[in-house]
Structures are given as C-alpha cells and as structure tokens.
Amino acid sequence: MNLDGLNDFSIEVPSWAYGNSGTRFKVFTTKGVPRNPYEKISDAAEVNRLTGLAPRVSLHIPWDLVDDWSDLRRHAEENGVTIGAVNSNLFQEDDYRLGSLCNPDPAVRRKAVDHHLQCLDVMRQTGSTDIKVWLPDGLNYPGQDSLRGRQERLAESLRAIYDALDPDQRMLLEYKLFEPAFYSMDIPDWGTSLLHCLALGEQATVVLDTGHHAPSTNIEFIVMQLLRQNRLGAFDFNSRFYADDDLIVGSADPFQLFRIMSEIVAAGAHRPESKVNFMLDQCHNIEEKIPGQIRSVLNVEQALAKALLIDQEALAVAQRDGDVLGANAILMDAYETDVRTALADRREERGLPRDPVAAFLASGYAQKAATDRAGGTQASWGA
Ligand code: AOS
Ligand code: ZN
Ligand code: ZN
C-alpha cells in the first residue's frame, strides 16, 4: 500500500478547540482545560507529539491575546509547533450589531479594519502568514439594509486590509450560508468569497468550512472549482449533521470527507507546495478535548490515505471509455480499503504510537493538567 503522499501532509489545529465550549444552552467544563494561550499551545503540541500530523496552531484574537508575542512564539517552537492562521473576531462587540466590515457607519467599518491591522502585526511577531477573516455580517430582514451597498462597503473594507498585507502574508476569506444572520449573510457562499478574492489579488484565497453549506451541497465540486482557480486557501474541517455543528470532522459523513480528499489528491493539493492550509474548526463540547483533536486529525489522515489509493490511471481509462460502473468501482475500492493497520505501521516506523488516542489516555497528561491547572479561569470559546 503506497501511502507516500502522506509524507509532508499536515493539519492545523485551532486554539479554541482546547477551551471549554458548548451551545447557548450549557457549557460543560472539564478539569485541566487550559487557562491561557500558553496552555492551549501545550495541549495542541501534545496532539502533534502523538500523531506527527499537527505542527501548527491557529490563534484567535482577542481570545488569545498575550503581552509578549515573541515569547508565545518561543513557547510554541519549544514544544515543536508553530503559530498558524490568525483569526480575527468581528462578532463580539456591541458596535457590530449591524455588521462590521459592511456596517453602514464608516467609523465602525474603520474599527473593524483596524482590528485586522492589529492581527497582521500579531502575525509579523509570531511568524504566522495567514489571516483568516470570517464575516458574521448579514441581515435578518429584507429591506433592513441595501444588499448591494453592503457588498460595495465590504469590497472597500477588504481592500484596506489586503493592501496592508506583507508580500508573504495571505488573506483567507471564509463564507457561511447562515448564522448569525438568518435572511442574508454578506459572504454566504464560495462564489461571493471568490469574487472578492479575485478582485483583491493573488494573496486572497477562499476558506471552505465543511459545515457552512446547505444540505446536499456537493462540497467536492466546490473544492475542485476553487483548486482550478488556485484560490482554495484553506479548509475549516468539521462535521455537519444539521448545520454548522463544529463536531469532529468525518463523523457525520466520512464518505464525503473521502470525496473531498479525492479532489485534493487529483489536483496534487495535499502537497505543501499547493499551500492549502488543512485547518480544523472544531469545538469539543461533551467529549475530552485532546483525544477529540487526535481523533480529528486521524480522520483527515485516514480519508487522505484512502484517496491516495485511488488507481488514477485505471480511473482515467474507465472514464475515457465511458465505463460508468467500472469508474465508480475504482473509487469505491479505494474508499472501502481498510487502511488502519497500514497507518498504524507507518506511525510505528516513525517512532509514533500505533494508537495515539490510547497513548494519550495512558500518558497521564490529562491527570497532570488537572492538578497543575487548578485555580485561574479556564479558557472558553468566546472568551
Ligand atoms: C464561524 O461559524 C466560523 O466557522 C469561523 O471560522 C469562526 O471564526 C470559528 O468558528 C471560530 O470562532
Ligand atoms: Zn470556520
Ligand atoms: Zn462555522
């Protein structure tokens, strides 16, 4: 089984996955949950240490604010990880009731742009190269504001941020069908995100969050189309049972994850040169967080491994010959191959545990964190 395509493949984990999280009904707390960005990075480093797959951690500003960014960077690097994408936050200030980058008030738009300039500074100090913009802006009622006017304001605000990028920095622009706005989001779909990216320039790319689509959307088609344009900058991986649930990637539909990774492999986009940032955007509300993250990165690895097994030459022949069932069978053969032993063998060869979740549970890390992290305030999504 040739799984060489997994060499150099990596997944980025989000700092907020290690804090407490929940729904608007209840946030359950867990002993040993990090109290600050340093402890979140330590937990993320543990995921990398056990899987060898997760060498970067996304930050969220202001949730992860620290006094000394170079010191946080040093802490990350000492623990074998680097700082990944920096996420801006446009959804927690009273000023943003009517939107942020699209707000009718120019002073609010300026404030939102300035926040991104602050994020760019954080990137310069931490070695991060990606700023991720998820826009919560939108309308709840028809007529509430001008749909078109908001796009013009958005273009202008994004331009101000884009023009402040250094040559090695990228903007990752995320779309979302609904929530927090329910009538119309200002970046509801990949087309809108792509149009803005194309207008901005080559350093602007689309983020595809797998939870952000209508039911039955063919996500792998979107992946393929964005790759054709060289504008798939990143994934936010998670599941989608009913809507944007931020649960473990591959739990709702592992076959969909395989189909997505098949398009990635077909385009060679699993290789680092493609610059697609395979990020997780998840929260672990009732399950243990570090094992939840380990399971997540292993799910992505497993889907990629299966996609790598697709016999591309045979598939091309079957497709050219119009062999409908034959072509489909080639894809399904790869999907139905059990790669678990091969992946465990691969881990062992690299000095990693065969079963990273079991290794974590046996390591005593969680018990030690629960003791060491008594006192203080635990981090949570949104704070
Ligand atoms: C929100 O639904 C989005 O998925 C964003 O990526 C968001 O920034 C992330 O969930 C962390 O707040
Ligand atoms: Zn997301
Ligand atoms: Zn989301």
Automatic annotation (TrEMBL):
Keyword Manganese annotated: yes
Keyword set, alphabetical order: Isomerase, Manganese, Metal-binding
Any Gene Ontology biological process: L-lyxose metabolic process
Pfam family, one: AP_endonuc_2
UniProt GO molecular function: L-rhamnose isomerase activity; metal ion binding
Domain (Xylose isomerase-like TIM barrel) ranges: 63-244
Keyword flag Metal-binding: yes
NCBIfam families, A to Z: RhaI_grampos (TIGR02635)
Record's protein name: Putative sugar isomerase
Organism listed in the record: Actinoplanes missouriensis (strain ATCC 14538 / DSM 43046 / CBS 188.64 / JCM 3121 / NBRC 102363 / NCIMB 12654 / NRRL B-3342 / UNCC 431)
